[in-house]
Amino acid sequence: MNAQLEQNNFLFVPNFISREHSELLAQEFYKLEQSGQYEKDHQAPNSPAVYNFKPFLELLCQKVNDVSALIEEQVLPTYTYARIYKNSEILARHRDRPACEISLTLHLSGDNAWGIGIQKPSGEEVNLNLNVGDAMLYLGCTADHWRNTPFTGQNYSQVFLHYVRSNGPCAWAYFDKKQ
After folding, report:
1. Average pLDDT over residues 36-55
2. For residues 117 and 147, is the Cβ–Cβ distance under 8 A?
């Protein structure tokens, strides 16, 4: 695995996708929200969310080779999950399930900056602000991560892209299989 990823639990990936691509995906997500075809979850109860929205699944699959190159190991896709965070929302400190061994949070759009926190193996906590199209690649089921400062804007859309290492301990979870 990439030494910097192992040392820090994350990699900052500027321009993971273009601003134009981000804005297009965000528009499709906002249309889905307007149609009422979303769910709510306990982690961010006031924020529309969607599991495996087709445009995000396409991106998940398109980025397999890029993510494999970043971590220096072959990955397999598991699933996508996306939210449009609303004003005052937080995301409590947590770790993800095994299907999120290698995860990316990709900033699609938003009307205000909002940092994401992650804990390094040393215990140091880092807070990153992502621009539209930027991603943070991180070890989702190993590293604590959060957004515990309330969001002060109205909308912040992002998508999680989840993978497992093809030969890693969570490989059984490819395509979001259950053990």
Report:
1. 94
2. yes
116-150: pLDDT as tens digits: 999 999 999 999 999 999 999 999 999 999 998 99
- Token look-up 């249309």 returns 31
Q: How many CB atoms lie within 10 A of CB 37?
A: 11
> Torsion angle, CA of 160/164/170/173, rounded to 10 degrees?
70
Mean pLDDT, residues 61-90 taken together? 98
Q: Which of 106, 103, 115 is nearest to 70 (CA)?
A: 103
Whole-Å CA distances, 56 to 35, 74, 87:
17, 20, 24
Contacts of 106 (CB under 8 A, 6+ apart): 16, 17, 22, 130, 133, 134, 135, 158, 159, 160, 161
